[in-house]
Amino acid sequence: MLREIEHARGAGVTIDDLARLTGVTTRTIRRDLQALEESGFPIYDDRSRDDGRTRWIMNGQATKGLAAGLTLAELCALHFSRTLLESLAGTPFRDDLTSAFDKLGSTLTPHMRQFLDQLPAVIATKPDPHRRRADATDPRHRDVVARALEATLHHRQATLTYYSRSSERTKTYHVHPHRLAYAQGGLYLQAFVPEYGEIRTFAVERIQTISLLEDRFTPIEDTHGEAFPHSMGVHSGPPEMVVLSFEAAIADYVQTRDWHPSQTWVATPDGGGTLTMQVSLDQALTGWILSFGAAVQVLQPAALASTIAATLDAARGRYPAA
């Protein structure tokens, strides 16, 4: 409603117009307009038109001081989405988000802010699963993020000391930082490593130090696309064709969700179906497949089917015979 009134500018919008646009009754529109007025939003009804129809108009003077030239509707949308954005809690940007929203909120009157503060309560979010990481308020961790950002923005080569969870050792790398990526509750630095001739992914919380060099580098690939495009997790390996057969009991659940942009679904006569994707064969994929238990079967590739079967056998071996 605010957006329509704001876009209409001096022409105004009638209650009938708002009812038609929103698909509700005029009684609902009147009640909502009254609530907005009482909350201090700069809208008013204009009955001075020649056609005798009442139109609702926004006081443009009252919105000129909004932050960064935002319209009132845009500001409301940002404030409303606060709950969603704060699901990034745990990243170094958590405090910055809070500060930004506080500054945006300062442009609202107390009654308007009180009204908008009720809106996020109707949206609940569950943060991404968080791995153990350094405290986002740790100055050392913030320094790593700041230096990584500077390196990626200005294409500066860098050296970093990194603790590898897989090898359980600390190593120094000479890298060309390409970008930071937020995924699955953590920050990752994607950097080209000349020693290996490939892009590698470093979990930011395991970077112990990072030093920027004066030498510059030329990015070797377009980094404006999606992070980890071939993985269901945070892997950077090449994609392979994966074909999975799902039982009828979970077919509807699987086919109605977007698991990967490359997915295709073909229904089978028994009510189940096959899902085909071009994805990396990594831990994220195997963990996802195993989450469906006996309701899924890997048809190809054979190596993935063997990995899943071996994992199930090993898991079964941890329990005594019934």
What would you note in describing this structure?
Helices cover 34% and strands 25% of the residues. It is α+β, with helices and mostly antiparallel strands and 322 residues long. It has three domains: 121 residues, Arc Repressor Mutant, subunit A, CATH 1.10.10; 78 residues, Roll (SH3 type barrels), CATH 2.30.30; 77 residues, 2-Layer Sandwich (Alpha-Beta Plaits). The strands form three sheets. The chain has a five-stranded antiparallel β-sheet with strand order 7-6-5-4-8, with helices on one face. Strands 10-11-9-12 form a four-stranded antiparallel β-sheet. Strands 1-3-2 form a three-stranded antiparallel β-sheet. α2 packs across α3.
Q: What is shown here, in short?
A:
The chain folds into three domains: 2-122, Arc Repressor Mutant, subunit A, CATH 1.10.10; 139-216, SH3 type barrels (Roll), CATH 2.30.30.520; 240-316, 2-Layer Sandwich (Alpha-Beta Plaits), CATH 3.30.70. It is built from eleven helices and twelve strands.
Could you tell me the strand content as a percent range?
A: 25-35%
Count of distinct structural domains: 3
* Poorly predicted regions: none
Order of helices and strands: HEHHEEHHHHHEEEEEEHEEHEH
The helix fraction, in percent, is 25-40%
Give the overall silhouette: extended
List the helices and strands and how they pair.
Blueprint: H1 2-8, E1 13-14, H2 15-22, H3 26-38, E2 43-46, E3 55-58, H4 72-80, H5 82-85, H6 94-105, H7 110-117, H8 139-154, E4 156-164, E5 169-183, E6 186-193, E7 198-203, E8 207-216, E9 240-246, H9 248-255, E10 264-267, E11 273-279, H10 283-290, E12 296-300, H11 302-316
Antiparallel strand pairs: 1-3, 2-3, 4-5, 4-8, 5-6, 6-7, 9-11, 9-12, 10-11
Helix pairs in contact: 2-3
